[in-house]
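Write out a record, focusing on structure:
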Amino acid sequence: MINILLNGCNGKMGQVISLMLKEDPKIQIAAGIDTNPDKFKNYYKTYKDINEIKEKADLLLDFSHPDGINKIAEYCANNGMALVVATTGLSQIQYDILRQVSKKIALFQSANMSYGVNVTVELCKNAAKALGNDFDIEIIEKHHNEKKDAPSGTALMIAKEINSTMNNSLEFVYDRHEKGARMHNELGIYSLRGGTIPGEHVIIFAGRDEIIEIKHTALSRKIFAEGSIKAIEFTAYKRPGYYNMSSLLKEICS
């Protein structure tokens, strides 16, 4: 049995994961952490401050807010606890902190926990290798009206992976208002917010007289919860190191 702490347990994703793990024979939520601990009556004890927790755990799953990531990473490093970070909107400084922490513990981080999204990333990388020099590349992402970060972490992840196949030669452009004509080395990223859209990403490869679109649509938050559960099982007893969804998929497919 893997015992976990769930940070952000009273958020939308936290509640989906709580429901999915309630009867899970392999993973048990030992305790939760949330800035609003009394919002829901969970079947596990919920704390406002992580340092108040007395329950023992093997791993912490973080589905919260970037502001708390430093404290969470420090707690896990000090307690020898594996960490799965599913929180988006992290800064480069925070990514660097996670890299340092991964020298002490097993740390899994992904801007998107969906299998389908990560397969989409691989498709985009292959398309960029074949078409990137002759096609313009643009990304459109859509999410619900309560999402705080824009562009989405997933859109940035896709853009960075495409750019890596292009020798990091592309310049990200987030708004074309009064920008003038498009430059060939630009990669445009656009954000739409509205309603209850769980998540949609469209990657457009526009060439002369032809267009290729690669699209992923999330129909519910369950896909992210399912990926998070796989990440927990993958990471819980790993040696210290920095892991991601590519590491998980590689192990599954090997």
